[in-house]
Amino acid sequence: MSTYRREHYLAKLRPFYNDSGLIKVITGIRRCGKSSLLITVLNELFEQGIPETNLIYLNLDRREYRNVTTPDQLDQLIEQAMSNAYGAGLRYLFIDEVQNVKGFETVINGWREEGNCSIFITGSNSYLLSGELATKLTGRYIKLEMFTLSFQEYLGMRNFLNKPEIPVSQAFRDYLTYGGFPKSLEYDDPDAKAAYIQDVIGQIFNKDITAHKKVRNRDTFTRVQDYLINNFAAPTNLSGIIAYLKHSEGISIKRETLASYVRLLESAKILYKCPRFDLKSRKSLRGGEKYYLADPGIRFARNTDTRVSYGPSLENALYTHLRSKGYDVSVGTIGKLECDFIVRKRNQYAYIQVSMSVQDPQVEEREYRPFSKLADGYPKYLFTLDPLPLQRDGVRHLNLMEFLQKRRRYRLRLNINNGDYVVWRAGCADASHALRRRQALRLRT
């Protein structure tokens, strides 16, 4: 079976292909490409000479496995599949949507304990690692979180599907509008794209949300969901949502109920919470956090207005890109000022502002003002869509579309060298570029 290769994720998994002691756990929103990733791994192993009989793939969302709901039934299914693995050497077990079986953890751990089996499992919500698997398998699993297509992958998959060639700027606008659910690229009609994504959201509600918590008032839950989707990338607090629902929608909701609804949307990976981080105390703050969409297409599918709101959309695209690279991302608070993102990995930091353009002098001053309050020497970035980036005050101004496309192969790093940094292009050979390499900023993407 031919599938589009998500090389970024494959590179993270390859070192563990033959490790029978670690369970490979792949999470992400439904239809982000987890099943295709498993198929790609399976194909790579087959190409390496692993006998087909030793490659066992079970998708628990398939109709023939709809009655596999208990640990004993899952164990029996695996036992039956394993009995056909008569080839010599390590066996490879792939189980898709394993969270469909409540109590799967004991079964999976048991097969891991037996050895001679490399196990890969996927799940569509955070409950996958909230129970026994996390407690019983401490140090015995690795987690890989998948996102929908990045812009670079979006362009790659368009080529894979033999879509007509279009200007990159048009592709970027389409990406910010319709999003990166892989299968949605197969549809050219916007209404078909919207219908597909609506179906995905419906599956998430029915399979990932109500399976773990009964939602008594589905209409109120939907209103809360729509509010957060429509206000993505904006500072949010529970009191503000309660006030909006009461005065604009005529709905009264308890704070505890609202908080549980928000957690459900996070757990189902429709939304990602970006907490606030105080730069003075170096501590996370409560309230005023932002929520970003797992995919831009979610907003498109839930709205009749298909116009791109570039400010929040650009933030969202960069947020998911950074998260997919393994960075912790927070909203920065600098006194009364806000820095769009603080990117962290261990004790290394970088500061980021995002704007559609800073060609207006007032906008330029607004975007640079938070940077003027930062004196710790960590790297500072300004991302816009301006064709001719402006360099000032030690801030690196980059074109976001080019950065996400990686046309110039930007390589960013977090830690700095004597407070001096630049961004360099891979593959350059002249002396000035070589100097930039030695001075390169260390925020790797």
Keywords:
445 residues, alpha/beta, 5-stranded parallel β-sheet, 16 helices, globular, disordered C terminus
Q: Would you tell me the overall average pLDDT?
A: 86
Low-confidence stretches: 416-445
| Separation, N- and C-terminal Cα atoms | 30 Å
| Rg calculated over all Cα atoms | 23 Å
Strand element count: 16
Structural commentary:
It is a single chain. The model is unreliable at 416-445 (pLDDT under 50). The radius of gyration is 23 Å and the shape is globular. α3 runs parallel beside α4. It has 445 residues and is of the alpha/beta class. The chain has helices at 7-13, 34-47, 71-82, 104-114, 132-136, 151-160, 168-178, 190-209, 218-230, 238-248, 255-267, 297-301, 310-324, 361-372, 400-405, 431-438; strands at 23-27, 55-59, 91-96, 117-123, 141-145, 271-278, 283-293, 328-334, 337-345, 348-354, 380-384, 396-399, 410-411, 413-415, 424-425, 442-443.
